[in-house]
Specification:
Glutamine Phosphoribosylpyrophosphate, subunit 1, domain 1; 28 helices; Rossmann fold; 6-stranded antiparallel sheet; alpha+beta
Length: about 650
């Protein structure tokens, strides 16, 4: 596991080293640089040694030095790929480095090298003969890759903060990203929070032709729902068990000890059970609990202990208190790179794990693959919603039913003088009847996410949103891209393209690598996911028992209490903390005066959402938390213009 950076174009020698230094936490074991001054190419990496500890130094080249690579990740089928390449006459200099496997695959197949890869990865290859950079990211976006282009240079990095070392990089906020963030609590898609930096999307590659400065991107794989009918539940249970066992076995490939994050939920408990069943010697497990009055409902330590006892693991527990969160909050904001409004307990689990292991297995991906959080249930209970969400005639059906309401009310709002209602109420009236985001916005986005498009335009932002795409419209485009008529599969597609990749996997990568820990997600072995998505959606998940098929497949591995426990999110008790320990911080960063001066949020956001929540008159936990976490990010990266990890805490901000 590594951090990778690179520059092409006019540059000072120190820029590459400074970029690389900002990612030291991703790889404290080793560092390397390669420079080709005539071509203006410079590559660097920081290495966390997991495979081939003595011979995996990067940047790595082929035999004649014409091809160089920097690579972050693990290829879990690299032993099989190496054997295949050796059978074709390829000579290897390392013992078992998957980095060298990638080099030979590129020489052998070019861009088609991506198709056989099973793992998590982001890499960039410099082909000197073709004067080309070729870069790729794994199918689900487990490992990150950003790029930035200016008139004089092109740069890439594992983390956004590395671009802060470049004088040409401007810290301008991407308004569309901020707009989506306040609904989703994360930033989706190819745009980052910074206007001039982009993400390479999952399952995509880019080519950058150095002489012409031409950049092109393409997708090499996509999620597919090719359902296979005629199999019984029992047959599918056997297939799931077999294929998930294979995936877990693949993803335990390592030359160093591994541990398992254990929340007490189905997914992480299943990973522990399958590792135990496979005969691994002493398994190390790590669980998080909460200390403090009123926090008992978030505590899963008792369930985690049951799993640890069943498999005889070397079990470790860490109990979190509010003051620990507050002390580390600014550091978390720095390492997350971009605003993030979700829960943050993984920071502590990963930090705890990193004291004794370098690789941590997690259950991330199990919910999206099997349960999809039941987001389809409300829509499946409404015949009109089903019709509106159908790909065939979706917009026509929607327009027939709502055009009569939307047009007159929109026109009415425009006709109302500002002196009657004021501009705020006028915009609110128009927003209430704005259904342009399509059926997904109406039936999926609005019920499930934290701010509707109408609310954001009338009660959240004061910035100019004329050119910003509605979040509902963005999600509608993904729904249409799924190209299936099945509601459950289409919503699963959206979750894989947004919440899974851009929230959970992004958070997992940043918070684990902040502590130099490699986090692995065997539920997202692509061969396993492809198999699961051949199961008819009506069998894969049920409205009354979302993960029944997975649970039936692994029931013998888990204590009965785990199988019957209610679903809990792996979050921290933010609602309580906003009203106690974090109250002064929220009042300071979200004050009407500060919001007005900043020019992004409506000053009335404080009176509408913040004050009622802090006084326990309303529950706006996630709306206030999202705004607070953005303001912390803004303070660190914009107001303080940080170029290195902050040394202050939240207390210094309010004093």
């Amino acid at each position: 596991m590594c951090g990778i950076v690179g520059i092409v174009g006019q540059q000072e020698p120190s820029w590459l080293s400074d970029m690389n230094a900002l990612e030291r936490h991703r790889g404290p074991d080793d560092a390397g640089e390669y420079r080709d001054p005539p071509a203006g190419v410079a590559l660097a990496m920081r290495r966390l040694s997991i495979l081939d500890l003595s011979a995996g130094h990067q940047p790595m080249s082929n035999a004649d030095g014409s091809i160089w690579i920097v690579y972050n990740g693990e290829i879990f089928n690299s032993p099989e790929l190496r054997a295949e390449l050796e059978s074709k006459g390829r000579q290897f200099r390392t013992h078992n480095s998957d980095t060298e496997v990638l080099l030979h695959l590129y020489e052998e197949r070019g861009e088609d090298m991506l198709l056989p890869l099973n793992g998590m990865f982001a890499f960039v290859i410099y082909d000197r003969n073709k004067q080309l950079l070729f870069a790729a990211r794994d199918r689900f976006g487990i490992k990150p890759l950003y790029f930035f282009q200016s008139p004089t240079l092109f740069a890439f990095a594992s983390e956004l903060k590395s671009f802060l070392a470049l004088p040409d990089f401007k810290r301008e906020i991407d308004l569309s990203s901020l707009y989506h963030y306040m609904s989703l609590l994360h930033i989706p898609g190819e745009h980052s929070i910074f206007r001039h930096a982009q993400r390479l999307l999952p399952a995509h590659y880019f080519k950058y032709h150095i002489p012409s400065r031409a950049l092109s991107t393409a997708r090499y794989w996509d999620i597919s729902f090719q359902e296979v009918n005629g199999r019984s539940d029992a047959e599918w249970r056997e297939i799931i068990r077999t294929e998930l066992s294979k995936a877990v076995q693949r993803w335990t490939l390592s030359d160093v000890p591994i541990g398992c994050s254990l929340s007490g939920g189905i997914d992480s408990s299943t990973i522990v059970g399958l590792i135990g069943e496979s005969g691994h010697k002493q398994i190390k497990t790590y669980a998080l609990g909460f200390a403090g009055s009123g926090e008992e409902e978030w505590n899963e330590l008792p369930l985690a202990r049951l799993v640890a006892q069943k498999w005889g693991t070397e079990h470790h527990e860490v109990v979190l208190d509010p003051e620990t969160l507050l002390d580390d909050l600014v550091q978390m904001v720095w390492h997350l790179d971009e605003p993030y409004g979700g829960g943050l307990p993984s920071w502590y689990v990963f930090r705890f794990m990193s004291e004794t292991v370098k690789v941590g297995m997690t259950g991330t991906g199990g919910d999206e693959t099997f349960g999809n959080y039941g987001k389809y249930r409300v829509m499946e209970n409404s015949s009109f919603a089903r019709a509106a969400m159908s790909r065939r005639g979706a917009y026509e059906s929607f327009a027939r039913n709502f055009a009569w309401a939307w047009r007159p009310c929109s026109q009415l709002a425009e006709a109302v003088p500002d002196t009657w209602l004021g501009s705020y109420r006028k915009r609110r009236l128009a927003g209430l009847f704005d259904f342009r985001s399509g059926p997904v916005g109406r039936y999926f986005f609005n019920p499930w996410y934290y701010f509707s498009d109408g609310a954001k335009r009338t009660a959240v932002f004061q910035m100019d949103l004329d050119e910003v795409m509605e979040t509902g419209s963005m999600l509608q485009s993904l729904y249409d891209q799924a190209n299936v008529d099945d509601l459950r599969n289409s919503l699963t597609y959206i979750d894989f393209k947004t919440q899974l990749t851009d929230e959970f996997l992004s958070m997992t990568d940043r918070l684990s690598m902040a502590h130099s820990l490699e986090a692995r997600v065997p539920f997202l072995d692509h061969e396993f996911v492809e198999t699961v998505f051949t199961i008819p959606s009506s069998l894969r998940t049920r409205p009354d028992d979302l993960k029944y098929l997975l649970k039936a497949s692994v029931a013998d591995l888990l204590p009965a209490e785990i199988l019957n426990a209610r679903k809990r999110g792996f979050v921290i008790p933010i609602k309580l903390w906003l009203r106690t320990s974090l109250k002064k911080l929220a009042e300071h960063l979200l004050s009407p005066e500060r919001l007005n001066a900043q020019g992004l949020f409506e000053p009335g956001f404080y009176w509408r959402y913040v004050k009622p929540h802090l006084e326990a008159k309303e529950d706006f936990t996630w709306q206030v938390w999202a705004a607070l976490m953005f303001q912390l990010w803004h303070f660190v990266f914009i107001e303080q213009n940080a170029r290195s990890a902050p040394t202050y805490t939240w207390r210094d901000i309010i004093n």
